[in-house]
């Protein structure tokens, strides 16, 4: 299920870039946000110690900022007329699929300890 959802999300991103009507590869930059999204949470979980209550909110705030940036980038590019609105909507749909995959992975493989 995760592989199918991730594949659909990435297909939407690639379609936003490669369709002849759009033919610009700027929307592909959201993949960098996909790679950066789980990093703050992984760093916070790896460096757990007595002050875990301080690190968890900072990691969540940073993760939320990365996710919001990946949704904002195609909108800003479309408003600046760098990409077309159709490519923007395909990128946003791909974002939903990709982040649903990441979220399902983290909830599915969560350890018994939660913060």
TrEMBL record:
Similarity annotation: Belongs to the OB-RGRP/VPS55 family.
GO cellular component: endosome; membrane
InterPro entries per UniProt: Vps55/LEPROT
Species lineage: Eukaryota, Metazoa, Ecdysozoa, Arthropoda, Hexapoda
Its membrane topology: Multi-pass membrane protein
Keyword Metal-binding in annotation: no
UniProt entry keywords in alphabetical sequence: Membrane, Transmembrane, Transmembrane helix
Official protein name in the record: Uncharacterized protein
Membrane spanning stretches: 12-36, 56-78, 85-107
A biological-process GO annotation: late endosome to vacuole transport via multivesicular body sorting pathway
